[in-house]
From TrEMBL:
One Gene Ontology molecular-function label: ATP binding
Source organism of this protein record: Apteryx owenii (Little spotted kiwi)
Protein name in UniProt: Phosphoseryl-tRNA kinase
Signal sequence extent: none
Key words, A-Z: ATP-binding, Nucleotide-binding
Domain of life: Eukaryota
Presence of the UniProt keyword Transmembrane helix in the record: no
Pfam hit, one: KTI12
Presence of the UniProt keyword rRNA-binding in the record: no
Amino acid sequence: MEQREAAGRRRVGLCVLCGLPAAGKSTLARALRHRLPRRQRWDCALLTYDDLIPPEAFGPPAPEAGLAGQTPLLSRWKLYRHELLQYLEHFLQALINGDRLSAPPSRTESTWESFVACCEGQGLLSSQGPDAGACHYLTDVATSRPLYFILDDNFYYQSMRYEVYQLARKYSLSFCQLFLECPLEWCLQRNHLRSHPLPDQTIYLMARKIEMPDLENNAWEKNSLILKSFECTLEDNLQIIHLLANALENPVKQNEENTEQKEVDRAICAASTVHQADQTFRRIISQTMKDAKDENVRPSDMKSLAEELNKLKAEFLEDLRQGSHLKNKICQQNSDPVTSVTSSFQYEATNVVNKYILK
């Protein structure tokens, strides 16, 4: 019972490293892994996703593949990322409860073995217990020292990082983010120097999709630090330590769940609404142009009509992104924001085309 209470009181933090490939995340992660135990007297464990996710996540599925099976490449990668997070939660449960770490019943053997080996290599686990079986490991870390997990991956979508935040909130752990903002050209150059470089197109695509921490609008991202390059100055180092220490002193509270979940649900719903509206607007424009052609609108006017309709579409979508059409509509019971905004767009588009038909 004493071990359980001691483990339960131990301060644990989750630090997410995010940014483009070759931005310097792994360099920073290794530096933290080396410095935090020496300078702060904190235990520190590094989970590098590129090392833990098996090669089959990036290639054609093997016939015996269990977890990812025959799913598409990006879906397999997502499943493996989600699985790693489940293993981390499994470890946290054992740490908090003072229990042995046993293999979860649903797992990919190679990924689980990589995770266990990673933890053992950093002194978090030991398989040399008196009753340790093939899938049972004993936690082997001092309970008096704080423990930080450094998660090293691209985490280019906010939703990816929010999954880690949810885990911190579930167990009242500390949570923070380090975002490495590095020029795309530098990332491409450094990527070419790697032994196994990524295709340039992959980095270009990620650069277009990456979402920086939004400290103003996302309360859950308040413990974030955006670094301009991986070459951290002394001031940057002090800021990092301050961020980690502040997060450690202020773990995420479980009672924040409702507010935070509503905030994220609203953001997800808004993004979905914009996408659906965009597809609907395109269909309306296509049909409107066809109707105008059937009404013998002149070719020169057809061009002007198309430009005006596309401008109208852009304005409506921007309003949606800014929330102008979403207030008191999105994600509320018995409401359909797409239908509402579509009716408004249809009305405006009809007024536009009538100007050309009635000339």
